[in-house]
Amino acid sequence: MRHTLTPGDETLHGHFSPDFPPVLTIDPGDTVTYRTLDCWWSVGPYPGGRNRDRPRVPQHQPDHGHALIGPVAVRGARAGQTLEVHIDAIVPGNWGTTVAGGWPSGFNERYGVEQDGVVHDWALDPVAMTGRNQHGHTVTLRPFMGVLGMPPAEPGRHSTVPPRPCGGNLDCKDLTAGTTLLLPIPVDGALFSVGDGHAAQGDGEIGGTAIECPMDEVTLTLDVRDDFPVTGPVARTADAWLTLGVGATLDDATFMALDSMLTLMQRLYGVSRPDAVALASVAVDVRVTQIVNQTVGAHAVLRNDALR
Questions:
Q1: What is the per-residue pLDDT for 53?
Q2: Same domain for 91 and 145?
Q3: Is the domain of 219 the same as that of 298?
């Protein structure tokens, strides 16, 4: 069955929480098409001036994080199972914004741009899949959703900023249309939410923002699996397996990603743990996912042609 969710009083929220009631309950295997706002809850394109002063939709509150749509409950899903999120389609809107510098942060301090900030205003062409900013720079679009996830099991409201093993603000640029994301379910029903559309982003998201944009269409098929246990995010793209790690340091995130990758390789190839380490040292790449979300991310990549 197919369902549709659009931004509104019932669907928009700015935190993760196991206490939020679902706005929609679906059966495993159902498909949901969303329309999403940009991360800042913006009414429309950047109007000039300070980005923090741009008009926002009336549902926005000062303590809100990213503009999320949901939560969606999956009937019969139980904590400890695996949520399978197949990303069927992602279509960006026709505008986006990148902000760099101008606010206090560890990374801006290192770059020397805490005081001086800029805003790049992008015109997006979702047909040609290109974006052009006001300075004439053109990039190829590769849209994905920055936030795909579920709330921690602990009661109360949780920030949308740090990524977690159950997903959230992963900001992994490889989670594009055609990819399947596997997440450990932390709460009964799953209570899945999505938001934070990115039209394009580099590994690391080094300035703290990508091309932040609304999405005209995000179509996801949600299913529940008992046959593929995971302890953190695992993704299957057209040409690779990815395992994602998060942590206080890049070392922590890297070793979480590699722990998941070694387990995956044992499953895929029927090898021992030491053999998986040996093969991974030859065939697996480690990449920085993002360094700007309080909790940083890394991911391990095993390409289809890397090991035969």
A1: 94
A2: yes
A3: no
pLDDT, one tens digit per residue, over 239-268 is 999 999 999 999 999 999 999 999 999 999
Tell me 64's DSSP state.
-
Model pLDDT for residues 6-57, shown as the tens digit of each residue: 999 999 999 999 999 999 999 999 999 999 999 999 999 999 999 999 999 9
- Domain that residue 274 falls in: 239-303
Give the count of beta carbons closer than 10 Å to the beta carbon of residue 231.
Answer: 12
Residue 110 φ/ψ, nearest 5 degrees: -65, -35
Q: What is the number of structural domains in the chain?
A: 2
| DSSP annotation of 150 | -
Question: 217: closest CA among 94, 60, 123, 55?
Answer: 94
Over residues 189-215, mean pLDDT: 98
End-to-end CA distance of the chain: 38
Could you tell me how many residues make up the chain? Answer: 308
The reply to whether 205 and 253 lie within a common domain is: no
Q: What residues contact residue 142 under an 8 Å CB cut-off, 6+ apart? A: 129, 173, 176, 199, 200, 201
Predicted local distance difference test score (pLDDT) of residue 147: 98
SS3 content of the chain, % helix, strand, coil (to 5): 15, 40, 50
Q: Residue 130's pLDDT is what? A: 98
Residue 294: give its domain's CATH number: 3.10.28.20
pLDDT of residue 277: 98
Alpha helices in the chain (DSSP H): 106-111, 250-269, 273-283
